[in-house]
Amino acid sequence: MKKHVVVIGGGPAGMTAAIFAARAGATVTLLEKGTSLGRKLLLTGGGRCNITNHKLPNELITQIPGNGKFLYSALSQFGAQDIIHFFHKAGIELKEEAHGRMFPKDDQATSILQGFLFHLKKNHVQIQTNCAVQTIHFLAKNGWHHVECIDGKIMQANAVILATGGQTLPKTGSSGDGYPWAKLAGHTITNLYPTEVPLQVSKNFMNLNRVQGLTFPDISITVINSKGKAIKEIRHDLLFTHFGLSGPAALRAATYVQALRQKRDSEKSISLQLDVCPDSYETELYQKLLTLKKQSPQKSLKSTVGMFTQERYALFLLDFLKISNTLKLAECKNETLQKFIHALKAFLIPIDKTLGFEKAFVTGGGVSVKEINPKTMASKKMPGLYFCGELLDIHAHTGGYNLTAAMSTGFCAGNHAGA
Hints:
The protein is of the alpha+beta class. It has twelve helices and 19 strands. Helix 1 packs parallel to helix 5, helix 1 packs parallel to helix 12 and helix 8 runs antiparallel to helix 11. It starts with a strand and ends with a helix.
C-alpha cells in the first residue's frame, strides 16, 4: 500500500513539498484553507515574483541572516539551478535581473503559479481548497496521524508536512496556524517578529514629504546603534516614503534594527546613516566642489548641488542644514560646502520602529531549527512530522532568497516524507 502524505499549506513551500512527496511514490493530499493556492506568492516582487536568485549555495547562505547555515544540506539537494530547471520543465522560462534576481520572462507572478500547478497536476496531487485544519492528532491509531478539518473531515496520514507559513501579510492566509500544532508535537517556537519590513522614521524628524517617492538605485546605508557604533552596512536600492524608508536596502536593515530592539531596552535611538555617493570619498567630493567654486564663483549653489546627487534630495539636505539655496558659490564659506558634502556621505536618519506583520514580507523566528533534521526537514520530536518554509525559524533578505529557502526545504520535506 502506498504511503499517504498530507501537506498543510498551499504556498510555495507546501506546493513544492506535495509535488516531490508524490514523485517519491506517495499518495499526497494538499490542504489549503483559502479559496486558491499561492495567494501570497502572487503578491511577491510587486506581482512579478522574484522566485529565486542565481547564486551558488555558499553565496545564498550569506543572504540568509536567520539560521542560514541550517540550509547548507537543503540547498545542496535543491538549489537555484534546480528551481530554474523545475520551472523550465513546466514551460516557464526565467530571466536574470540585477543582483542575480530571477523573474518569469513575462513578468507575471501568475506564470510561476502556473508552473507549480503544472507539476501538481502531473504528479496527481489531490488538492483540497477551502479546507481549514482544526487540529492534528499525532500517532492516533496504528502509528497514523489524524488530520481533523473544521468541517469534521478526518484524514489519516503516515506523514504530515506543515507548510503553513509565518504571520506576515495575514490577509493572504499566513496567520500563524502552524505554531500551535508544532507546539502540540513538542516543538519550541522562537520569538516571532516582522522582518524584511519598511522602516518608520521618528515623527519629530524633518518632514519627508519633500523626498517622498525618491528612489536611489545604489546607495550605502549603515545601521547605527544608540552608542553611535556601526552595526551593519548595506549596499542596495532605497526608496523614500511618506512614513520613512523602504526598498531592498531598508528592508534588509530592518533585520538589524529589530535585533537591536530585542537585544536591550536601552536601544531607543537607532539611526540609519545614508551615503548617496558610495563610490566616492568625502575628500574627493569636497575638492570637486571647491574647484567648481573657483571656476564658476557666480554659479548658484542650487544648480551646483544637483551635480552630486538627485536635485530634490540635495535641496532637502540644504534645507536640513539651514543653508540657503539662493546663495552663489562665491558667497558660500568652505565650511558650509564641507557640511553639505558630509551630509551626502553620512546623513543620519533616526528610526522610530519597523512596521508590523501586516507590512512585512517575512516572519523572523518560528519552529526552532535545533529540533529539525537539516537533511530531511523531519521533526526530531515527532515521527512522521516534517516542516518547511517560513514556519521554520529561517529568514532571508529580499531578492529571491526566501522563496529559494521555501522551495529547498519543501523539496527535502516532500522527498523524504514520501520516500
